[in-house]
Amino acid sequence: MRRPRVGGRTLEHVGDRTDTVCQEARWRRASLVDKLRERGSIRSAAVGDAMLAVPRHRFVPEAPLRAAYADDVFVTKRNNEGDALSSASQPAIVAEMLEQLDVAPGHRVLEIGAGTGYNAALLDALVGPRGSVTAVDLDADTVKRAREALDAVGCERVRVVQADGEAGFAEGAPYDRIIVTVGTWDLPPAWWDQLAEGGRLVAPLQIRGSEHSVAFDYTGGVLRSRSVITCGFMPMRGIGSHESQAVELSEGRIIAFHADKEVEAAGARGVLDERGTTVWTGVRIAPGEDTAQLSLWLACAFSGCGRMSAPFGDHGKLRLMLRWANPAVVDGGAFAYVACRRDGDADDVRGSGIEVGVRGHGPGGEALAERVAAQVAVWNRECRGDVRLQIEAYRSGVGPTVEGRFVVPKRHSRLAIRLARSS
After folding, report:
1. Is-catalytic flag, 89?
2. What's the CA gap between 215 and 178, in Å, rounded?
3. Taking a C-beta distance cutoff of 8 angstroms, is the pair 380, 363 a contact?
4. Confidence of residue 287 (pLDDT cuts 50, 70, 90)
5. Of residues 89, 210, 244, 250, which has the active-site annotation?
6. CA 46, 38, 181: angle at the middle one, nearest 5?
7. Which fold would CATH assign to domain 5-240?
8. Would you give the distance in Å from CA 267 to the centre of its chain?
9. What is the rounded distance in angstroms from the CA atom of residue 198 to the CA atom of residue 108?
10. What's the Cα-to-Cα distance from 264 to each of 331, 332, 348, 367, rounded to whole Å?
11. I need a labelling partner for 16 at 20 to 30 A (CA). Which of 96, 224, 227, 305 fits?
12. What is the pLDDT of residues 380-393, one digit of tens each?
């Protein structure tokens, strides 16, 4: 079996100098990569080889090997209240975003949010010796930790800078690729200024409380989405921070509704402890089909849209469609969320998978569930197959009047969201 070769170095030269006899780490790393390939998170040889070559456990030394190579988030820093401040992202979303970014040897890459340094090491492997990687983070401890871990695995050429990610890092611009690994509410001017014409920006963009990793191609002063996937990241701090809120949906269970501050979310507090009504839509999602387009559609259709999280899968009698970023809507005292059930009808044209439903709670919950279900049906009719929602981002005050099926104003940008055929 060939050894993965990345950036001109073989596996043993990318952080395995002290790990060459650590068979368990290698086995777990290979097993994780195999699983991510099977699930479709890894689609290219380049990303697969990079994830084989970079030892994730060296970036989370406090984690047991089982946890270091689990397809899950690992929190590395918390504040005094116990809230997570920094983490190693779930490997699946790391791989998905690298695939979105489409890095090539020789590229100049800027990363907003250094984390543990693991993602920067993967980028370093992808750009090779002719490229460059700069990671920017606001937190001094995070920068120090990332720098030490990168040096320990032989990634000395990666530059790690303590700075506010809102401002990017002008010294290394223009960049062929910019990747943001913190949740961002907006697309600040510096990112536009520092991205090369024809370059690509990948960012976890928040739209009405939902969050999607959007791959934007930059041409003619406009950012146009190429792909959109569901994700969930810790929010950006510093100048670019945006206040949001989280409301407990049930007493004694860690289930929350996350929404922008302008959403009147208080009506959702404790609502899951009340009786509810389920509306089944007949809309089916095939195995492996991404639900980001449905989440984005609902976020645009309802001003009270946000995301529902149930970290331990404890969400009552019904399954959530998504564990961390499940679409949900609040309207006064009414609350509705997207649920699903397994569909075993093999004769259906879409094959077996799940059927989408909407569960309503609280006063007016049934009517709200009907309204949400109606939008699921519209999405199913108008935005399936080769038709997708495309996001075009324009700088505020620059360019034409923005029009689209949905228009979302931001501080620094305007988003026009339209139906478009896949290229």
Report:
1. yes
2. 10
3. no
4. confident
5. 89
6. 55
7. Rossmann fold (3.40.50)
8. 27
9. 13
10. 8, 7, 40, 18
11. 96
12. 999 998 899 999 99
